[in-house]
């Protein structure tokens, strides 16, 4: 196959993103990142508390909070998906 034929067979892909969908995606991404940072902080603080027997109860509660917050992660993704699904679908060029 010649180079000229190869170029003619190539298909270019053009993606069009709705501005509102991008804004929603970015906002949920920020919420997800903040949630992940907080999870890390709870588990780190809980781990440090376990070095001191007087703080063991606080450490346990921090682990419980971190574990509960891990359940928020899929809720954030599901919320984003449902929010994006409610947007009107962009007009198609096809």
Write the layout of secondary structure elements.
Elements: H1 3-9, H2 19-49, H3 56-70, H4 72-86
Helix pairs in contact: 2-3, 2-4
InterPro entries: YrhK_domain
Protein name: YrhK-like protein
Keywords: Membrane, Transmembrane, Transmembrane helix
At a glance:
The chain has helices at 3-9, 19-49, 56-70, 72-86.
Q: Roughly what percent helix?
A: over 70%
List low-pLDDT spans: none
Assembly type: single chain
Alpha-beta classification: mainly alpha
Radius of gyration over alpha carbons?
A: 23 Å
Count of beta strands: 0
Mean pLDDT: 84
- Major sheet, described briefly? none
Give the N-to-C terminal Cα separation: 29 Å
Q: Per the principal axes of the C-alpha atoms, what is the gross shape?
A: elongated
Written overview of the protein:
- The protein is an all-alpha fold and 94 residues long.
- It has a domain at 39-87.
- The protein contains 4 helices and no strands.
- The protein has helices spanning 3-9, 19-49, 56-70, 72-86.
- α2 (19-49) runs antiparallel to α3 (56-70).
- The longest helix has 31 residues, at 19-49.
- The protein starts with a helix and ends in an 8-residue tail after the last helix.
- The model has no long low-confidence stretch (mean pLDDT 84).
- Pfam families: YrhK.
- Keywords: Membrane, Transmembrane, Transmembrane helix.
- The chain crosses the membrane at residues 39-64.
- Residues 26-81 form the YrhK domain.
- This is YrhK-like protein.
